[in-house]
Amino acid sequence: NPKSKIDETAYTQPALFALEYALFQLWKSWGVEPTAVMGHSVGEYAAACVAGVFSLEVGLKLIAARGRLMQALPQNGEMVAVLADPVQVAGAIAPYTQQVAVAAINGPKSLVLSGERQAIRAICATLEAQGVKTKALQVSHAFHSPLMLPMLAEFEKVASQVTYSAPKIPLISNLTGQLVGEEIANSDYWCRHILSAVQFAASMETLQQQGYQIFVEIGPKPILLGMAQG
Question: What angle in degrees, to the nearest 10, is found between the helix axes of 56-71 and 9-29?
Fold first, then answer.
């Protein structure tokens, strides 16, 4: 079977954004509106749009450019999920920080590594020898890693030409895992978002500390809720 276009990141990213924004509007039509929002990587674009950081048109422009520019990069990267202590992971990736980074921290011992294929495989071999479980992810590129650097300048050109506002409802940042204000309303934030680790575990802790008890996951598959319970 020929591979679906939806698996190419140039199409995956706009499709995810469009689906998530449409699902928000559907819930809204039922009278259900969020009191706070957060995303996970691409999901932060939908969350920011819902929070009024930028318009739907701007959100589509940004995510289309992001996907297109990432698609044009060499497909020489991999991403792997690892069940290990962050300190142990930091030791394993230390020799490879130019090629590999932590892409997401989803739980206390649930991380995603991203970077150049050979370096990732060497790191996995090291970790597996220490008894750590690793699982390769089905991705086209090494997102949230140094391999994204070559597309940043072109993305910044697009991101610096649009209008941003501070969030109108509480928004938890992927970059810090904390509530975010004016600092999300500029192109620099969205460039750093491309390279930085997704602080999902810290974000869930922030929501818990703020007293939120009901969570709705808006996306094509129920993945984040499972991680949130971990």
Answer: 160
pTM of the model: 0.96
24 and 87 in contact (C-beta within 8 Å)? no
Do the Cβ atoms of 46 and 17 come closer than 8 Å? yes
In whole numbers, what is the pLDDT of the chain averaged over residues? 96
Helix axis angle, 43-50 relative to 9-29, nearest 10°? 40
Contact present, 199 and 106 (Cβ < 8 Å): no
Neighbours of 91 (CB within 10 A): 14
Note the pLDDT tens digit of each residue in 86-131.
999 999 999 999 999 999 999 999 999 999 999 999 999 999 999 9
Those residues whose C-beta lies under 8 Å from the C-beta of residue 162, and which sit 6 or more positions away, are 54, 58, 61, 62, 187
Rg (CA), the chain: 17
What's the CA gap between 124 and 126, in Å, rounded? Answer: 5
3 state SS of 74:
coil
